[in-house]
Amino acid sequence: MSRLTIALVLLVGALAGGLAVSLATRTALDETQVRTIAEDVVAAAPKTAAGLTPSAVESIVTDLIARQPKQNTPQSDQVASVDAATINPMIEDYLLKNPRILQKVSAALDAELTAERTAQTKAAIAELQPALYSAPGQVVLGNPEGDVTLVEMFDYNCGYCRQSLPDIAALLDEDKNLRIILKEFPILSQASIEAARVAVQVAEANVDYWSFHQALFTGRGQVDKAAALKAAADLGLNPITLEMGMKAPKVEDVIQQSYRIADQLKITGTPTFIIGEEVIPGAIGLDGLKQRIANMRACGATVCPAPTAQPG
């Protein structure tokens, strides 16, 4: 059972309880009336600013009941007949006979949760601007003054990161106004952490980091300290000096900053791309990256609004 399905089941249970309270304090309703009210609630709930919450729905139901004709002589046994034990089966039966109601609730709930996540991501990216785009020790490729910036968080032992390497290479070759920032995000193994500690030092040295980066991703076997030191040595760096500097505070700071970014943006895998106000998990391919870059230039966002039809 999915999390969304579980949430819907809990929601229905909570609404049933709210309905029972509201109805018991107002007037006795027969099954047809309850079904009518339930349908009205589902139709009205997505329009409420508070969202699909038990309190919001209970308020709607209370209002609907208040507008119903009052029973002339409500008796105590009539009120007792609309307790939770009576209402819950009615609602369950109604929902089973009208399953599309749950589809509507699911869509509304999913849209609300997505909007919340998007708002949280935008706020976090705004707060992280210095860490994302101007942090010490980060690797900047392409045009340092480019009009669009693409951030990639990667792990040298990530197969999907390896798969994305040709995409990054193509972007660097084809788009001369793009800035690409690479951030070490070693999460897969201790070997990844050790390779990242070497890579941070290579990034600060006067050598071609992109060549080092490609060498690690195109080599065979696990990328570990030995592999990173060899690739650095091939560029003329002293492997002994690099190994001695692996635990230097400035090296640790660069890696820890990536972890802090990931924590605030809820990033749990690699590769993860960040562009504009969007966090993109996974290897989405060259076309997907190009489209988002083009949209950033066209409208300042990774997804541009659809053009409105002009009257003929």
3D structure, described in words:
Strands 1-3-2-4-5 form a five-stranded mixed β-sheet, with helices on both faces. The protein is of the alpha+beta class. Helix 8 links the parallel strand 2 and strand 3. The chain folds into two domains: 3-121, no CATH class; 130-299, Glutaredoxin (3-Layer(aba) Sandwich), CATH 3.40.30.10. The radius of gyration is 29 Å and the shape is elongated. Mean pLDDT is 80; it is low at 1-10, 14-28, 46-52, 54-58 and 73-81. The chain has 14 helices and five strands.
Separation, N- and C-terminal Cα atoms: 50 Å
Topology as a string of helices (H) and strands (E): HHHHHHHEEHEHHHHHEEH
Helix content: 55-70%
CATH architecture of the largest domain: 3-Layer(aba) Sandwich
Query: Please, how many domains?
Result: 2
Please indicate the percent range of residues in DSSP E strands (runs of 2 or more).
Answer: 5-15%
The major sheet is characterized as: 5 strands, mixed
Per DSSP E runs of 2 or more residues, the count of β-strands stands at: 5
| Radius of gyration over C-alpha positions, nearest whole angstrom | 29 Å
Pairing-aware structural class of the strands and helices? alpha+beta
CATH topology title of the largest domain:
Glutaredoxin
User: Could you tell me the mean pLDDT?
Assistant: 80
- At the first level of CATH, the class of the largest domain is Alpha Beta
Number of helical elements: 14
What is the CATH superfamily classification of the largest domain? Glutaredoxin
User: What is the strand arrangement across the widest sheet?
Assistant: 1-3-2-4-5
Low-confidence stretches: 1-10, 14-28, 46-52, 54-58, 73-81
From the spread of the alpha carbons, the general shape counts as elongated
